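Data card: per-record layout.
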Amino acid sequence: MPRRSPRCRLGHFDFSEEVVSGAHLSAPSFEGENGPSLCCSPSDLQASPGSGLVLHPNQAAHGQRRESFLYRSDSDYELSPKSLSRNSSIVGELHGEDLIVTPFAQVLASLRTVRNNFTTLTNVQCASNKRSPATNQPSLTKVCLSDDSYQKLAMETMEELDWCLDQLETIQTYRSVSDMASNKFKRMLNRELSHLSEMSRSGNQVSEYISNTFLEKQNELELPCPVPKSRERKRRQSQKQQQQQQQQQQQQSGMMTQISGVRKVNHTPSICGNTNNRFGVKTDQEELLSKDLEGINKWGLNIFKVAEHSHNRPLTSVMYSIFQERDLMRTFKIPTDTFVTFMLTLEDHYHSDVAYHNSLHAADVAQSTHILLSTPALDEVFTDLEILAAIFAAAIHDVDHPGVSNQFLINTNSELALMYNDESVLENHHLAVGFKLLQGENCDIFQNLTKKQKQTLRRMVIDMVLATDMSKHMSLLANLKTMVETKKVTSSGVLLLDNYTDRMQVLRNMVHCADLSNPTKPLDLYRQWTDRIMEEFFHQGDRERERGMEISPMCDKHTASVERTQVGFIDYIVHPLWETWADLVHPDAQDILDTLEDNRNWYQRMIPQSPSPPFYASDGESGQPGELEGGPVASKFQFELTLDDQEEQGGGGESPMMDTAGGVILQPHACDRDGVEMTTCDISPAET
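The structure for this 688-residue chain is written out next.
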């Protein structure tokens, strides 16, 4: 049966019975392995979500806006002599010319080229039009080729088919197609960061920061690095002190089964139950707060003004406004006083003395998620329960954040790291605290949900909050990009969000985008967020210095380059993510990409032109001669690339899927002395 060409509503969707039935779908059903249905309860029936998303071409962006590093060639940044589909490009009426960078989608594009060439060479007319693009294509006519043209096309077709076979033969069956893209992106980022680290001392710091924060480390091999005896003694003494402190804390705290950070908070009944408060908070600046919250449906809400006019209750007031705007309290029968009590309790569990990861940030992420859910391309796609879960996840995603990184907690053998086995330590803790607070007096905002709704909501919230672990960034990006590009090269170009996995793929990336949205906001807001995150970084660096620990990348206030950090952060993390999101919802996010580009250029102009200052030993600690002014660059940052199956590298030239078959690990090695060690697997060592 020929696939119907979808008729678009608002240029994106068609929810007509004809289109949905043509895809053999009546409504998204997630029974079986994907768990319970999300559209079975009375409160969800009104949502009537659509399940098809038409992926549109992004022609203007390719010609006018700078693309991310993902679109560079995967072979030393030089164009491959092979054909277009293997050069990550597809051409057609549906998409114009779209660049394809994920390995599995490249194979699909190549196979489509082979098929088209076959019809040209054989003049075969297929009765079924299933594999033809979903646009109004003219009927095929016989093509007369000269002998030379015929032979040339036949050879190109054979080379294309051989390339596809090479890729398919090297696929490791236990890996997903998204893993292939993730490993490819990690390898490409490895090269980018290696080049950046060689440019300057500040570039070296930025490279180390990006690698340590946004790349998940697995199966690392720790290589010995020469350390002065005095520093080794200091390190051992520090470890002993830390162990003694931890033993004392564990004896005082008792059983580890208790969720730390949860405390009883009393709110006066007049505040919690007063329905006269328009935004759920008591304030003598209600008119100013009202004016601030007029922008609740606009990208770039000034959350700092909201905090000022709500008596430092930005999360409560923003969440109250969002729930009122979306009518969620009526839909899910949430009592107003219960909602306000929970939100005030939740906000109290964000630490006001933490510069960045506080209730301001939570309110900003919740409001950004609210806007992304409202983008025209996703209009009516998600159910009310999914919307509730996404906004709730954004609100709790950093609750009880201590202002230090996961790696700091792991390195100090903290109780949280022990409880969660070093895996997404803070994210697991945020979830535990967030759900535990629902058990407080008059705090259960989900009390009127059915059992099935509660189970489904909890599952979705866990998935979304765990996705805010920044070490999972590259996997999230690869998953989304593979999903988008695979659908682009299929015959219809329609992304059917008809199962739990695909829908959560979009929602996880949505909350992740909201969490990394600061650089996409107006510059005055972005700069305030930058000041706050750097203050938090420097505070962690001070604590590490006091403990005699190695100071984490970008946490040393004496050497960090704020401007260069932001440029690198945008180039290698934020831009590729938002570029992919914009591809999904095109053209809805173009203004966001423009703002991101403007902000990146502003920080680029602010980078000091003078050479980076030398590393100075701080707090009276004597450094090595090579570390001080006049000596060579200390601790030059290097990366390690390892593959699970190294025997696969014994072949010829580099192929995208052959290289991505193995697990790619990027591991920094920073030594305290002049000598630098670097371990690689069949890659050229960076110059030292």
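Known properties of this structure: The mean pLDDT is 74. The longest helix spans residues 229-253.

See the next section for split statistics.
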